[in-house]
Structures are given as C-alpha cells and as structure tokens.
Amino acid sequence: MANAKSQTTISPHSQASLCTRVYPDESELNEKLRKAARAQKEWQKVELKERIAIGHKFMEEIEKMKGDDMYLELTEQMGRPVSQVPGEIRGFLSRAEYMLSIAESSLADVSLKDTDAPGFRRYIKRVPLGTVFVIAPWNFPYLTSINSVLPAIVAGNAVLLKPSPQTPLAAERFATALVNAGVPEGIIQVLHLSPTLTSYVVQHELVDFVCFTGSVAGGQAVERAAVEAPGFKGVALELGGKDPAYVRVDADLDYTIGELVDGAMFNSGQSCCAIERVYVHESVYDKFVEGYVDLVKKYKLGDPTHPDTNLGPVVSIASAERIKRQVADAVKAGAKALIPEDLFPIAQQNNAYVAPQVLVDVDHTMDVMMEETFGPVIGIQKVSSDEEAIRLMNDSPYGLTASIWTNAAENPDSEKAFLQMVDQLNTGTVFLNRCDCLDPALSWTGVKNSGRGVSLSKFGYDQLTRPKSVHMKIKTK
Fold first, then answer.
1. CA torsion angle for 3, 22, 174, 437 (degrees, to 10)?
2. What's the pLDDT tens digit per position in 421-476?
C-alpha cells in the first residue's frame, strides 16, 4: 500500500511472522542519499588496489559467517531446503573471487599509444557512475546481489541496496560484512522501502544508475519511473524467463534426465533461468518422459528446515495458488498430468507447498508453455526435428537462456549442429549439456522480456562505469 509504514516477512513454510522493518520517512531517505553521494566522492579517490583488497577482506568476513545460523536464516526467509543453502554461499564467494580477479584489467585505462600521432597522447578511462541503486530479489538474494553490489563498489560507486521484503536479513548480513571489511558505511546502505519509496529513490537526482532484478511487471515499473524522472537515468533490468531445453536424438538420457529434473525443480523452480519447458525428439520421447517422471516422484517435499528435505515450499500462498491454477488450466485445455498429487500430501490449498508436476500433451496455446511459472512444474513436448525445436524455443516472449542436449563428445556432427543452433536461438545464453548455471566469466544478459543490460564478466564492470576520453596535445610547437 502507498501509505504503508513497515513490512513484515512471512516465513513460507510456517506462515509465521519472521521480522519487521520500518520504512524511512522522506527526510530520512534524503539524508541517506546525501550520505551516499558524499561518501562516493571520497571513495572514488581510494586506489583501486585498496578497494580490491577490501573486497577480499569482505570474502573473509562472509567465510566467518558461514554456518548453520546463516543457512537456517535464509531458509526461514524464503523456504529453500536448508541443505541446499550452502551452495548459494559457495556460488556467491566464487562470483566475488572472479569479479575481484578481473577488476584491474576491466577498469584499466585503454591506451591508444600505438596510434598516437607525435606529440599527442590519448586514452580512455573507466570512471564510476556515482550512486547505484540495486533492487534485489528474494529467490537467490546473495547470488543476485553479488552480481552488481561488489563490482559497483570496487569500481568506485556508492550502493543503495534494496532487498525484497522476503529476504531483508540477507541484505543486512551482506552489508555488515562489507563494512566489517573496511567499506565506509556511506558506500553501502540497506534500504527497506515501499513501492512508493522505491520509485522515489529511482527518480532521485542523487541516484545515477539502477540495477533491478525481478519480475517483468516490476521492471516495467522501474523503467517507467526512470523515464519520468528528470534527465536520462540508466537502468539495467534482469527479468523473467521461460527457459527451454531441447533433447536431441543422441543425448545421454540418464545424464540429461537428471540434469533437467534438477534444472526444473531446484529451489522449487523459483529461478529466472530454471528449465520451464522441454522439447524432446520423438525417437527418444517416451523413454525420456518415463525416466523424468520416475525421478520427480522420488523428491521429498516438506519442511525446508529438515536436512532430508530436497523440495521446499514456494515463496507464498498466493504464488502457490497461481502455479496450481496454471497447471489446472493446462489440464483443462488437454494437457496430461503425470505426477499423482497424493504422492505429496503436504501440498494443500491453505499453504505454500506445491506438488511437483510433469505435464505432457502440451502446446503453445497454454500459459504453462508461454508464461513464467516460477514453480516446480515442467511441460514436455514432442518434436520431430531440430528445426521444429528451434521454432518452438524461440516462440516465447522471453529470452534468457536455452540449452541443447546432445552427444557432442562422440558425434562431431552434433557439435556442429549445436553451434548452428546457437546462432538461431534468440537468448542471452545458450548451454550445451548443462542448464540453470551462471559462469561469472560470461556475461549474464537477456533479450525480449527477459530484460536488458549485463552483469558479471568484464561487461558487468562496463555497465557500472562510464568511459571518459582524454585527448592530450602535448607539443604545441
């Protein structure tokens, strides 16, 4: 609500109130923005090597935090099984390590001395943008935040981090580790904000750039606010996905089935790059579906605080109802559900648990194959050729990732076919024999309704800085 004064985090599995945060008023918020602007002017003067060293100390601080308290804290906030939380922290540290390792080369001046005329010197600097407003999601609050927060700070910016109301404690822990490592308090500030206050910050004259990760509707709201603000504010948008996989005739089915079940079910399907639709060549379709269903039936849906649970609730009862409605609509339109719901009795109408589901006899008239599900549901469709698979994979309003599953190791023609499909697929990333995986050396980007902009890799630093050209005529006689 526009007049809300606070937010309360509801734990998905218990529906208990976990924590409450009070929003700042406008005067308090303005002071936080001024504090960031003042701090940034001094921070950009700090030598890059020192900022990188502080980044490594930050990693040490996170290492100190690792343990059951940190893992259970995240599980209580967003519902992922506690046994799977350490993987997010490992990935968080891996991305931090890589982005620190390339900071000097990525932020170095670009010399043009090889083409300078006598008496001239030209080069291009990378300079910080100023204050960067990072709006982070709840589904992977550490992994998504590290993509922009740490590179922005290392590059000389101040960061205002607005976490999802679902995961406020993760952002606070992140910021505490940064400050303990030596980052000035004005350079990293966590802001708990209502939608109205979020728009206010997006439009504020002291905010120079906005990094948003979340839904398409949320991205549209951020973009609209930025466009309506004075000046021309930069916005990076990492939005939704409806990521497809294509299983070719020569795929290693045992391996592929395991990977694609995990790609669809991990984190209860609540990943922007989760596998949400699978196209399988007709010659291996029946065997693939049989193996896929058998594996999904073995999942244990339950209390995420229990160590043997491998599938937790989705984020809210409202989300659970939306996912179940999408499945019901598909079945009503002719799809066939292959997982008996009574295998997962904890999934009820009045809670956030959703039974995993595999749907066949699906087509692109159904929302389950066209709109983001963000739940433990997969649609599997039979195809007769590479060409049909490519057409269906591209028939989507989204374009984040796509994966091809084929035996390139033993069949050179399969690798050649894959490389041809890379050029035909309209996505930000194309995988061979893997999915739902980010490599920090590669740019993370999307097309269509999956957003625009880039994080990670050298290009992530480019987004968080601007080029400044220096043109010197040294000799005037």
1. -40
2. 999 999 999 999 999 999 999 999 999 999 999 999 999 999 999 999 999 999 99
> How many alpha carbons lie under 13 Å from residue 456 in its C-beta half-sphere?
25
Tokens (6 digits) for 113: 């001395």
DSSP 395-443: -SSEESEEEEE--TTT-HHHHHHHHHHHHH--SSEEEES--S---TTS-
CA 91 – CA 114 distance, rounded (Å)? 40
The model's pTM? 0.97
Measure the CA dihedral 402/405/406/408, to 10°: 70
In Å, what is the CA distance from 236 to each residue of 167, 218, 336, 400?
A: 21, 12, 39, 14
Distance CA 354, CA 348 (A): 8
| Residue positions annotated with a catalytic role | 238, 272
Helix, strand, coil percent content, the chain, rounded in steps of 5: 45, 20, 35
In contact, 320 and 354? CB cutoff 8 Å: yes
Closest CA to 241 of 219, 259, 225: 219
Amino acid at site 176: T
pLDDT tier at 4, thresholds 50, 70, 90: confident
pLDDT, mean over the chain? 97
* Mean predicted confidence (pLDDT) in 396-401: 98
CA atoms within 13 A on the CB side of 347: 25
H helix intervals, 204-345: 216-228, 253-265, 285-296, 317-332
pLDDT digits (tens, 9 = 90+) for 192-224: 999 999 999 999 999 999 999 999 999 999 999
Specify the DSSP class assigned to residue 308: T
What is the reported pLDDT for 58? 98
d(CA 235, CA 221): 11
Ramachandran quadrant class, 267 (left: phi over 0; alpha: psi -120 to 50; beta: rest)? left
